[in-house]
């Protein structure tokens, strides 16, 4: 519609708004016009074709018509409440679907964790896209609550700034770590001292 003359968008705005206001929304099951006035808008085509709704309105005398309009307005509050309930149910369904994928992470003092390299997407010169995305391991020094933790290096140096738990993941020793412990028992003693 506007591809040929994009500068004339303002001429089509009223038609676009009319189409938007008279189209049913999937979330509410009603049109915005019906939520405002209590009944659907009468389209020009309905007048030309004489739909059942138009024919019924023509049969009504002045006082009967006013009474019908008042009845529609009285029922409007109930339909608005139903619509609100539908919207809330939809939001709860979306929330449930999202929360199924969320994994709750919590750590305790003394646990060994990896920390994401922040800011995300940082590359080390010479490594390019092969740059590590996790650094560490670190030891949880203090649990601050609300998902925040204070870390300490393996050397015992405590980090001043706390970090959110979403940037941490549990450290699982690899085969190489377990072999290092078997060949050098001092590593295991050092690990126990750091955790304690």
Give a description of the structure.
- This protein has 196 residues and is of the alpha+beta class.
- It has two domains: 6-101, no CATH class; 112-195, Roll (SH3 type barrels), CATH 2.30.30.140.
- 47% of the residues lie in helices and 14% in strands.
- The chain contains seven helices and five strands, in the order αααααβββββαα.
- The protein has helices at residues 9-21, 32-37, 44-49, 52-59, 62-101, 175-183, 185-195, and strands at 112-116, 134-145, 148-152, 163-164, 168-170.
- It has a five-stranded antiparallel sheet, with no helix packed on it.
- Strand 2 (134-145) and strand 3 (148-152) form a beta hairpin.
- Helix 6 (175-183) packs across helix 7 (185-195).
- 5% of the residues are buried.
- The model is unreliable at 183-189 (pLDDT under 50).
- GO terms for molecular function: nucleic acid binding.
- InterPro entries: RNaseH_sf (IPR036397).
Strand content: 5-15%
Give the total of domains. Answer: 2
* Euclidean distance between termini CA atoms: 71 Å
Coarse structural class: alpha+beta
Q: Specify the overall morphology.
A: elongated
Share of residues in helices: 40-55%
Helix and strand sequence: HHHHHEEEEEHH
Gyration radius (Cα, Å) is 33 Å
How would you state the average pLDDT, rounded? 80
Number of strands: 5
Strand order of the largest sheet: 4-3-2-1-5
Biggest sheet character: 5 strands, antiparallel
Which stretches are poorly predicted, pLDDT < 50 over at least 5 residues? 183-189
Quickly count the helices. 7
GO molecular function: nucleic acid binding
InterPro entries: RNaseH_sf
